[in-house]
Amino acid sequence: MVKYILKRIFYAIITILCIATITFALMKALPGDPFHNEKMKPELRQALLQKYGLDLPVSQQYLKYMNNLVHGDLGLSYKYVNRPVSQVIKSSFPKSFALGWRAMAYSSIFGILLGIIAALKHQKTQDYIIIFISIVGVSVPSIVMGPLLAYYFGVNLGWLPVTVTSSELSMLLPSFTLGLGTLAFVARLMRSTTLEVLGQDYILTGKSKGLATSKIVWNHVIRNAVMPVISVLGPSFAAIITGSIVIENVFAVSGLGGYFVSTITDQDYSMTMGITLFYAVLIIVSILLVDIAYGLVDPRLKVSSKGGE
Questions:
Q1: Average pLDDT of the chain?
Q2: What residue intervals traverse the membrane (predicted)?
Q3: Alpha-carbon distance 117 to 127, whole Å?
C-alpha cells in the first residue's frame, strides 16, 4: 500500500511540473507583453520589463520561474504593484473554498440519496422524475443555470439572496447552482451501480430468506454501490472548482474565480499562471486523496497493486 501511495504522489508531482511548463509556454506564446501600451513612455516600459525579468531570454525566464516555483514563489502581480501572487490567492481563496465545499457536500449527499431512491423505485414515477432532473443538471451549463436560478428564486420569488454575504442563507443558492451538475452526475451513477448491485445473487438470496429491504439496502447495497461514486469524487471536485469561476461572477462572489477572469483581460500573466497552477495543484491533490482513500477501502485495489509491482 505504501508503494501504491508513493507511486501516486510521484505521478502527481510530474503532472504539476508538466502543467507549470505548459502554462508558461502558453503565456509566452501570446502576442505583446503586459506593459505594451502606446501611451507608456519607452523608458518606463523598459524599466518594468527589467523589474519583472521579462527582458531576459525565454529560456532564462523559464528556469527562473521553475526555480521560484520549487521554492513556493509564484512571483509578483503585474497589475497589483508589489503584491505577491500567493498573497492574492491566500486572501481570496477562502471565499471560493467556502462555496466549493458546500457545493461538494450538497452534490455528494443529495446525489447519492436520489440515486438510491431512483434505483429502489425503478421504472416508477420517482425514478423518471430523478432521471429528468439528472438530464437537466448534466446538460445545462452553469453559465445558463446560474442566472436562471438567481432570477427565479432570488428576484421573482424573493426566497433567497442573489449576492453572497456573511449569512449562511446567502451561500445556499450559489452553492447549489455550482454543485448541480455534479449532483446530477452522482445521482445517475449511483442509480446505475445500485441497480447493478440489486441484481446480484447474494442480494436476491437475502430477499428470498425474508430479510427486510431496508436492512439489505443499508448493510449490503449502499456499501457496494457507493464504491464507484467515491472514485469519481476527485474529478467531480475538479469540475466544481473550475465551475466556480463562472458562478462567482454570476453571484458577485469576491473569490479567486473573479480574480482569474480579470487577470486574463488585464494580461496579468504572472497572476494567470499562479492561479492556474494553484487550481491544478488543488485538483490533483483532491484526486490523489480520493485514489488513496479508494485504495484503503477497496481490498481488490491493494491486491492488484501488489500484483503489478
A1: 82
A2: 9-30, 103-121, 128-152, 172-190, 225-247, 277-297
A3: 7
Instruction: Quote the CA–CA distance of 81 and 89 in Å, as a whole number.
Output: 15
Shared-domain flag, residues 106 and 240? yes
Report residue 161: phi and psi, to 5°: -70, 145
Looking at the fold, whether 216 and 305 belong to one and the same domain comes out as no
Pairwise CA distance, residues 259 & 80, whole Å: 11
pLDDT in tens, 119-133: 888 889 999 999 998
Examine the pLDDT at 9 and tell me if it is beyond 80: yes
Per the domain annotation, does 260 fall within a domain?
Answer: no
Range of the domain at 182: 93-254
pTM greater than 0.85? no
Q: Are residues 213 and 291 in the same domain?
A: no
Q: How far is CA 261 from the centre of its chain?
A: 16
Sign of CA dihedral 293, 294, 295, 298: positive
pLDDT of residue 297: 62
φ, ψ for residue 84 (rounded to 5)?
-65, 145
Q: What is the C-alpha separation between 228 and 283, in angstroms, rounded? A: 19
Please check the confidence at residue 219 and state whether its pLDDT lies above 80. Answer: no
Q: What does the DSSP assignment read for 186-240? A: HHHHHHHHHHHHHTSHHHHHHHHTT--HHHHIIIIIHHHHTHHHHHTHHHHHHHH
For residue 192, give the CATH number of its domain.
1.10.3720.10
Average pLDDT of the residues in 253-280: 82
